[in-house]
Every structure is written in C-alpha cells, then in structure tokens.
Amino acid sequence: MSETPVRVRFAPSPTGKLHVGGARTAIYNWAFARANHGTFILRIDDTDPTRSTEENTQIILRAMRWLGLDWDEGPEAGGPYGPYKQTERAELYRAAAQRLWDEGKAYPCFCTPEQLAADREAAQARKDPFQGYNRRCRGLSREEAQARIDAGESYVLRIKVPEDRGDVVVHDAVHGEVTFNARELDDFVIFRSDGTPTYNFATVVDDAAMKITHVIRGDDHLSNTPRQVIVYEALGAPVPTFAHISMILGADGKKLSKRHGATNVEEYRDAGYLSDAFVNYLALLGWSLDGETTIVPRDVLAREFSLDHVSKNPATFDPKKLDWIQAEYVRAMSDDEFCEKILLPSLAAAGVDAGDHGSAWWRALAQIVRPRTKMPADAAQVAAPVFATAATLAYDEKSVAKGLAKEGMGAVVDAAREALGALGEDEWRPERIDAALEELPERLDLKKRLVFQAVRVAVCGNMVSPPLGETMALVGREDCLARLARGRELAL
Ligand code: GLU
Q1: pTM
Q2: Among this protein's residues, is 160 annotated catalytic?
C-alpha cells in the first residue's frame, strides 16, 4: 500500500437529482475511503451555470445523507481544501490558467467559431485523419497576443500539448492500461471566452489542489482522462490513480434511464426502500465481495471494498434482486427496529392512528406483520385489521362471498362467539383463543378450513390476514366479540 493517505471525491454536477449511477459512484468512493482509512470528499461541480441549481444541490446532499454516505470534507462539513463548490473556486482556476500561460504551457487563441468550422471542413475534404485544432495561434508571440486581448478581441485559452508527448497511457484500476494517441488530443480549450474554465481543466485543478489520490467515476469519463493527464502534467501535479466504473444497464441492455422505471435515489426512498438494503444492492452493481455473497452490510462494505473486485463489464439493474435484498433486511430486523423503521412510518403514511399500546403489544404485532412485509406499504396493509374496530372494519366483498355468506356459516360464527365468549379477559391469549377454535370443527362436523375461514373473515374482513389467535389477541376480547356479532349478520 502506498504511504500517501487515500483521498477520494464524489463530484456530482447539480444539473438534476442524484441518479442511481451517481449514487453507486458515491458509494464506491465512500467505501474505498473507509476501507483505506482515507478521506471522502464531496465536491459540487456546479460550473455549468445554465443547468446547475441550488435546489438540486440540496436534493443531492439529502440523498447522500439518506444513503448514509457521510463525507469528511465538503459542503457543510468544511475542510482544509475548500471551498467545495466549483463556482466558489473561480479565482483558483483563473490563477492556475494564468500560471500555465506565464510558463508557456498554455496560450490564447483568437480563432473564431467560423474559422474553426472552416478548418474542420477543409481537413475533412482532404481526408486528414486529424481533424482537431490546427494550432494556428500557438505560435503567436506573447506581445502580439496581449495586444489583441487589450484591443478587446475575444479569445479562449488552450493548453499546449507537448509535441513530443507521445501516447498517453492511462493506468486504470478497472480497465488496465488504456492508450490514447496524444496527437488526437489537440491543443484543447481550458478557459472559454466567457471566462469560465472547462470541465477537464477545473476538475484537474481541484483534484490536484485537494490532493485526490484516486479518481473513481463513471467510465463515460474515460475518454476525458488523457486530456486531464495532460493538465496534471502541465500543472506539475502527480497524476492520481483512475478507476472508471462500468455503466448501469436496464434489463433490455440499454443504458439505465427513465424508461426502465425509477432512476433517482429519492424515488427509492419514497417507495420505502431501506437505505441499507439499497446501498447493499447498488454496491453489487459492478463489485463483489467474493463472487457470491449477496448480503453485504454497510460495515462489511466499508471494511472490505477494494478496486480489484470491481468489474469492467456493464452491470444490469435488476429490481427483483433489489426487492429480494430489501426483504432480507426486513427479515433480519429486530422487532423494535421493525416497528420503528417500517411499521410506524407505514401506518403514518397510510393515515392510521397507531393508538396507545405497550412495547410487548408492538413486538407481538411486529412478529406477525414482519414475515408478510417486503415494502413498508405492505406493513400497514397487513396490520390494518388490527387497527380497525368492530365499527370501522372493512369487509372484503370477495372474502365475504367465499368464506362467510355461505350456508352453515352462521352456525360457525355463533359457535365461535360462544366458545370465545367463555374466555375471560385474562385468558385472552393466542394459545387459548386457538384452542377454543380448534374444538369447533369436530363439534360442528365441518372441515377445519371452513370454520377458520369464516371466523377469519368475520374478525379480519379478509382471508389473508396474519395468524388468527395472535391477531385476535392483539385486537382484544371485547372488540373481537363485537366483530363476530357484526360478521354474524353477513353469514347465512
Ligand atoms: N461533475 C462530473 C460528473 O458529474 C464529475 C466527473 C468526475 O468525477 O470527474 O460527471
């Protein structure tokens, strides 16, 4: 391992919400920093003033917090290399560009867009394999250039790619050695005529100033990397290690987009996914612990993440696998955790008054609701009969027709009322309730399934509720008997 402390950054552009792909990039940077006892930096790349908004920045910060990706330096956290928003770093870019010009590593170019277009057309016409900038202004003397600037001529600043530079070889931790022909790079623009830096320049000025050791980002930026290497070299700054991670595809093999469903982190949060489950799932899109483990809790990720387990092949977003992982996290929760993180928010979202119950009551409810819950919305639905009363219980029509409004079921409900009514308040426990009901099929000479179905519909309003004894114990004796009385009117 190198002696230099690891410093990585996630640098979203606030031109939209935090996308699933961006979230995965953030997770990898965060996990890499944690696994190497390094520093995780959040930097807001808001240099595109037409598309960046403060609102999007806030949405991204909120999404990062929800994902649990705490940053050591960045907005709100501060840090020694701030500010951490590119719009607040304009002076640094200007100074860096000035220095390159002073050192003869950059030069002003006065070519107009029309001239550049004509050059390109001419290159195309003579089938020149090189169609980049022809370096017309590279030879201007400093005095001449300054005179034209003083005269108010519009210009950009271009970097001088050294003539003898040769190929640029990028050592990528995911893709291996990637070779780019330096001649193809031409003398690219580092400062626009409106005085703003280009992405390739601002990013490198920042990454160098912030002492970034590893640049982990989407592989759509791999083609920018040779230009960035040229900037590092011009600045005299060490080139970091790059790790370009694969794209995320939808099931149809196309780049993940709105067409495939939810693509923003917020949408998953609002749909009730657990942050831990979501981070676990995204981490597996291109990285694996050992090639087979699916449940990788956050602390394991933060300890074990390494770039050599990152795949260069595109990953496919599979909502079913996400749901499976979510269900595993729900299953593994303690009763108290389930109540706090799933059940209570779910009831609140459904507008159900949770009422006043002790912790034993809540734990008993968690035990019957949890196995039937994947998403939080399921919890409120499964628990709905428990929170209803004899007066408010909703009867599902189909369930009534199938289980209750049938010849002989009136007698079943009557028998159940009698057997259960014989139990005292202090005997109103799941085992006693079940035992009282168990006797009925034989006494009535009916199939057990029919008897339990009728009681279930009468008490819960449907045929798919959680176990009867437990549910009735939670509902309470008096209300159960009142429900049976109401159910009796529906039975034949
Ligand atoms: N702001 C750039 C983006 O969102 C950052 C790319 C990089 O990490 O260099 O794509």
Answers
A1: 0.89
A2: no
